[in-house]
Amino acid sequence: MADSPAANGNGGAQQAAPTINALAQYVKDLSFENPNAPRSLQPKEGQGPQINIQVNVNASQLAETDFEVELTLEGDAKMDGEVLFAFDVKYAGIFRMLNIPDDQMHPAVMIECPRLLFPFARQIVAEAVRNGGFPPLYIDPIDFVGLYRQKMMEQQGAPGPLAS
After folding, report:
1. What is the average pLDDT score of the chain?
2. Beta partners for residue 77, in sequence order
3. Is 162 among the domain residues?
4. 72: Cβ contacts below 8 Å, ≥ 6 apart
5. 159 falls in which pLDDT band (50, 70, 90)?
6. Are the C-beta atoms of residues 49 and 78 closer than 8 Å to each other?
7. Average pLDDT, stretch 19-37?
8. What's the pLDDT score for residue 5?
9. Is 147 contained in some domain?
10. Parallel, antiparallel, or unpaired: how do β-strands 82-98 and 19-33 relate?
């Protein structure tokens, strides 16, 4: 009796909770290059390598509630202008988005889905770098909210936060 709509205090039917279900996850593309091996594997004196990483998120709608979200991590490590290694992974997932309001669907797809994919893509990069003969590269957590906001500002042509 306590489960009736009148008893729960809202007087109406309960709204189903918003959910994101990962239906599948997969590597779409993976590349690792170690162009200067074995020379690049020899210990070097001085400062460590300079590591550059770029992140991108793309999504496409497959059905009314289903989306494919692709997280791309590209990067390289250079020392003294020489490439030690380079990687490119496109890791994707199919997500079912249920009971998410229309005005929140785009941010949910572009923020929450890549947030769910990231730990798996990060591990793939770490293992590829380790299998290339280097210490594993564990990419720092990514601020997908900040990345989303930056992309939205770029698409709208709005000036960045430091522009006057």
Report:
1. 87
2. 51, 85
3. no
4. 54, 55, 56, 57, 58, 88, 89, 90, 91
5. low
6. yes
7. 95
8. 45
9. no
10. antiparallel
Q: How high is the pLDDT of residue 158?
A: 56
Give me the pLDDT at residue 25, please: 98
* Residue 85 near residue 34 (C-beta atoms within 8 A): yes
Distance CA 22, CA 36 (A): 39
How far is residue 111's CA from residue 23's CA, in Å, rounded to a whole number? 17
Cβ-Cβ contacts under 8 Å for 49 (sequence gap 6 or more): 77, 78, 79, 84
Q: Report the CATH number at residue 73.
A: 3.10.420.10
Query: What is the average pLDDT across 122-137?
Result: 96
- The answer, yes or no, to whether residue 24 has pLDDT greater than 80, is yes
The number of distinct structural domains making up the chain is: 1
- Strands (E) across 34-98 are located at 50-61, 66-79, 82-98
Q: Output the pLDDT for position 95.
A: 98
Partners of 96 in the beta sheet? Answer: 21, 66
Q: Give phi and psi for 71, each to the nearest 5.
A: -105, 120
Domain membership of residue 30 as a residue range? 19-41+48-140
The answer on pLDDT for 163 being more than 50 is: no
